[in-house]
């Protein structure tokens, strides 16, 4: 999108900042947020390369004015489950394409069949959802048949208030369902009804509790790959966050995202990570047929910061925008998985990735290039 203006909403948040740092040297960038001082500070850190606009995304005129003149609007603001399609519709009305690090099924449902011809909207373009649905495809592509797939996501890190609120708003709102699995083309009750204490070489400690949870992204993944049996697990190391979440899930749906519950999740995550090294982990295990015989394979990715990983996925999407198909899509279903992973490792060299040799993805040998 050389020469075109890209508008970035939520620019000085933890995710938006990463997007801005990666895009500013490469594209014309417009930074948006309610606090001009923070936006100006970020712009100075970027070498004064960007344009700064004060933006209140809850004010329709302010949002419309920000989007006018942009070829692409990237939304890194939250909570995603409150914003829904608000920013997407403003971007489309202004003639811009739209990229959302969240979005998920509720936004997809609201926009389905309503895009003008020739336009692109990409949803769930972050770490989770996004990379969590893309990474398993790298391992699966070498199999002639996948009989079983197990996907793991989680780790250890402090939640922001916005992330905690979004997490609570996603409960029962189309993101997924606890204690469920995928079998023979449909969602079923999981046999793993209680937490499993995992012992895996890719875990930093032993006995990490894994809770069965089938996300809508995993449901699409398993369906796309025609997997016999699929299972998703959320990992909660430390125990405080998992305990707080279980308590909140027992409340009435309309009370779950109350301010005290958001604060409780933030506090619980802080207790879990106190004195520990934060990390975010994605892992996948496959049983299936490769080279004409039954095989088992595993791949994993561990990053220090989920926000930086999310921002990097979004930046990759923006820089490859012209190569993406027109229409409304989820990032995991249309991105080039190998190219995305290789670029993430260039931008985030501290991120550790383990893939079997047979995938053909040469991460360590990838050459630096200009996108």
TrEMBL record:
<dbReference type="InterPro" id="IPR005097">
    <property type="entry name" value="Sacchrp_dh_NADP-bd"/>
</dbReference>
<dbReference type="Pfam" id="PF03435">
    <property type="entry name" value="Sacchrp_dh_NADP"/>
</dbReference>
<feature type="domain" description="Saccharopine dehydrogenase NADP binding">
    <location>
        <begin position="6"/>
        <end position="101"/>
    </location>
</feature>
<protein>
    <submittedName>
        <fullName>Saccharopine dehydrogenase NADP binding domain-containing protein</fullName>
    </submittedName>
</protein>
<dbReference type="InterPro" id="IPR036291">
    <property type="entry name" value="NAD(P)-bd_dom_sf"/>
</dbReference>
């Amino acid at each position: 999108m050389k020469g075109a203006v890209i508008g970035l909403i939520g620019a000085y948040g933890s995710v938006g900042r990463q997007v801005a740092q990666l895009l500013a040297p490469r594209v014309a960038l417009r930074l948006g947020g309610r606090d001009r001082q923070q936006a100006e500070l970020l712009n100075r850190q970027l070498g004064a390369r960007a344009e700064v606009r004060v933006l209140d995304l809850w004010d329709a005129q302010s949002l419309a004015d920000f989007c006018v003149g942009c070829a692409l609007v990237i939304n890194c603001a939250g909570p995603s489950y409150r914003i829904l399609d608000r920013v997407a519709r403003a971007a489309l009305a202004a003639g811009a394409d739209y990229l959302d690090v969240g979005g998920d099924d509720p936004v997809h449902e609201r926009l389905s069949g309503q895009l003008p011809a020739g336009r692109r909207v990409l949803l769930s373009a972050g770490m989770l959802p996004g990379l969590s649905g893309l990474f398993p495809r790298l391992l699966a592509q070498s199999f002639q048949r996948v009989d079983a797939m197990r996907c793991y996501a989680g780790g250890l890190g402090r939640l922001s208030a916005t992330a905690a609120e979004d997490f609570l708003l996603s409960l029962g709102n189309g993101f997924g369902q606890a204690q469920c699995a995928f079998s023979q083309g449909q969602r079923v009750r999981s046999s793993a009804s209680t937490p499993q204490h995992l012992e895996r070489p890719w875990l930093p400690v032993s006995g990490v509790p894994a809770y069965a949870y089938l996300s809508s992204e995993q449901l699409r993944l398993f369906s796309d790959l025609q997997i016999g049996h699929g299972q998703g697990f959320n990992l909660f190391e430390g125990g405080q966050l998992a305990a707080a979440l279980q308590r909140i899930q027992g409340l009435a749906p309309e009370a779950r995202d109350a301010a005290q519950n958001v604060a409780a999740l933030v506090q619980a995550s802080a207790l879990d990570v106190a004195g520990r090294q934060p990390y975010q982990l994605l892992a996948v295990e496959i049983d299936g047929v490769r080279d004409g015989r039954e095989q088992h394979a595993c791949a994993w990715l561990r990053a220090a910061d989920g926000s930086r990983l999310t921002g990097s996925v979004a930046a990759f999407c923006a820089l490859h925008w012209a190569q993406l198909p027109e229409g409304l899509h989820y990032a995991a279903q249309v991105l080039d998985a190998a190219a995305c992973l290789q670029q993430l490792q260039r931008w985030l060299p501290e991120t550790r990735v383990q893939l079997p040799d047979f995938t053909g993805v040469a991460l360590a040998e990838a050459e630096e290039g200009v996108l």
